[in-house]
Amino acid sequence: MTEPVFTTIFEPFRIHSVEPLTMTTREQRRAALAAAGHNLFRVDAKDVLIDLLTDSGTGAMSKDQWAALQHGDESYAGSPSYYLFRDAVRALFPFEHVIPTHQGRAAERILFSVLGGPGKVIPNNTHFDTTRANIEYTGATAVDLVVAEGRDPASEYPFKGDVDVAALDRLLSERGPDVPVVMVTITNNSGGGQPVSLANLHAVREVCDAHGKPLFLDACRFAENAWFIKTREAGQGDRAVVDIVREIAGLADGMTMSAKKDPMGNIGGWLALADDDLARRCRDLLILTEGFPTYGGLAGRDLEALAQGLHEVVDHDYLRYRIRSTEYVGNALHEAGIPVVRPIGGHAVYIDARAMLPHIDPLAYPGQSLAVALYEVGGIRTCEIGTVMFGRQPDGTEQAAALDLFRLAIPRRTYTQSHMDYVVEVCRHVADHAGELAGLRIVEEPPTLRHFTATFEPLGTSSP
Ligand code: F0G
Q1: DSSP H or E segment with residue 191
Q2: Contact predicate 31/24, CB 8 Å
Q3: Nearest CA to ligand 1 atom 20
Q4: Per-residue pLDDT tens over the stretch 10-19
Q5: Distance between CA atoms of 185 and 102, rounded to whole angstroms?
Q6: d(CA 100, CA 298)
Q7: What is the rounded distance in angstroms from the CA atom of residue 385 to the CA atom of residue 368?
């Protein structure tokens, strides 16, 4: 008998501790929406049934991570937990300087405070919102140079996070002296969670070398990106993910990191880099607002949990489950005729809200309308990634974003396949009633990162 091949998506863990979910009625959710100004960031988590707002810091830790917390050494300076953390980072990203921060944006703020400033230009495949905001806050300009396929939600190109290398070369030829660093985000979150190929990273490195520029990775979802390289890129199938990750790291001069993603932490981040002088300037800023360089903004126990998380995330059984379970949701929506960004990304399914609600102008926020409808109908919290998030320009004017998406981000190891079947069911219902949605207008907004706190008002009454 030949060995059977089973195709069920298999969670390589069983559940050890459970968290109850609270059911709410549609009336309660309508009231919660009104009280929150129709902004899901302002809705209390206790009023949410399935929380797909983000995959950041919301995953389940393993029993070994919980055990690692007990090993935390809370010494102010030189804690052994720091060295364990540093070595776990270096095992994958062998940079001389590993500087812990309380989360990713703190690493960004420090790096761009040193490298940014008025007149500077910082390219990326697509800047995440906090990256862009931290760059713009210094007076510098953030430029997105993703390949054309990355801006086409329907394109099946396997590496839609790739950088447009010719455009990068042009930018560096024209504005070279103004570009302090080239960034690449793996996977490309704002562009649909799409991976960057190893070939593209090599090509970016070559262009950086030709122009004498450092390359930094925004590496939050490095393990998912490496899995996509392993499974999609020619000649990579037999390699271990750790090996691919080390090759990626070897192409870069440094990285910013949110440890709330692939390192499986509930909090944390780091800045890692090779250059001694740059590291010294970054550490000086770190001490000013984050803490002493051996703990950054973190407790020793957090550093221990992250070190363990880094071992777990490169496990092939975990990554196979992770990518397949996200794809399961995306494929179910696709089969139901819902316009999802293809191919399905690593940590999230992105729905093309503009395609789903062609009757709603981008400036009436189709992504936000769908996110609000999904919450009202099924208690599911998602996140707009479109004109609400990116539409406000540094000069205060407003423009439609390149894409109007909304994102179902899947926390790591947290929800079961039946939870996801429910999510698909609710999405199908909302899709069937999409024509009834009317859009929203902004009532109040802050000058930067408005999506977190803005309040909205529906432009009509609808009850999908
Ligand atoms: N870079 C990328 C690509 C991110 O996705 C995030 C966070 C950050 C940087 C900032 O890290 O949150 O630790 O300060 N993304 C989360 C999300 C918030 O929901 O996509 P942070």
Answers
A1: none
A2: no
A3: 54
A4: 999 999 999 9
A5: 19
A6: 7
A7: 8
Q: In 118-253, which ranges are E strands?
A: 121-124, 141-144, 182-185, 215-218
Which two structure tokens, joined as six digits, stand for 140? 């510098």
How does pLDDT run across 61-77, given as a tens digit for each residue? 999 999 999 999 999 99
Question: What are the per-10-residue average pLDDT scores of the chain (464 residues)?
Answer: 90 95 95 97 97 97 98 98 98 98 98 98 95 95 96 93 98 98 96 95 98 98 98 98 98 98 98 98 96 96 98 98 97 97 95 96 97 98 94 90 93 97 98 95 91 93 73
Could you give the 3-state DSSP secondary structure of residue 144?
strand
Q: Which atom of ligand 1 has the smallest separation from the CA of 348?
A: 20
User: 441 - beta bridge partners?
Assistant: 457
Q: Whose CA is nearest to atom 19 of ligand 1?
A: 54
Strand 121-124 with 97-101, pairing: unpaired
Domain ranges, ordered by start, for the chain: 26-48+315-458, 63-313
Alpha helices in 57-146 (DSSP H): 63-69, 80-92, 104-115, 129-137
The CATH code for residues 63-313 is 3.40.640.10
Note the residue count of the chain.
Answer: 464
Name the pTM for this structure: 0.95
- Atom of ligand 1 lying closest to residue 269 CA: 13
The CATH architecture that domain 26-48+315-458 belongs to is Alpha-Beta Complex (3.90)
